[in-house]
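#struct-pred
JK: can someone run the complex with manganese (II) ion? inputs below
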Amino acid sequence: MNYVFPIHKIPILSVAGTENVFPVHRIYCVGQNYSKHMHEMGSNPKRDAPFFFSKPADAVIHSESKISYPTKTKNLHHEVELVVAIGEKGKKISKSEALKHVFGYTVGLDLTRRDLQQEAKKKGRPWTIAKGFDHSAPCSVLHKVDDIGFIEKGCITLKVNGEIRQRGDVSEMIWSVPEIISILSGFFELFPGDLIFTGTPSGVGPINKGDKLVGVVEKLTNLEIHIV
Ligand code: MN
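RT: done, structure tokens with the ligand placed:
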């Protein structure tokens, strides 16, 4: 059997302190997981079940990349997030077993065409074009749990051109990482290579051509992106 055209390269992330790379399988994202951000998006931070959306695996792009300002939007937004990398498969994972499935963590940006997202929300349409566009999931290098332990707290910030725009603490998540893994794995079987974007703290806002973004989560390597 031959492929009718060469198969696409598997998207990868580097693993800190090694020559190894992490092959990306799927990208899942949690919506509105910090209460201050829910307020700024006009939602009520009741503890409703978390909701999920996804991005294509090849939306990942590594740190220190230049990203072209996407087409079809006049309101590109930054959302800095803690990203969990899955290392062991499982479905219907219990909360108490969830952390065994974590390979490591990185800092990610859930880039969003906010104008298209708002229109989709109004019309009850899917978010694909607002959230899942090319290069919409920049990520830094992965740090293994074996090296840094589990992340349950720690400052998360985003700077644009040196100015702090987003600031929060990972401990302020409405749904914790074990809860997210447990609930998500009730809908999808999780596999090694899956990434889970865990939601963004408040302070989201527009970015423009020429902006330099730095995403920071305590214990992890910064994510640096240049919009061109
Ligand atoms: Mn997000």
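RT: quick notes.
The chain has five helices and 18 strands.
The chain has a mean pLDDT of 96.
JK: thanks, will look after standup
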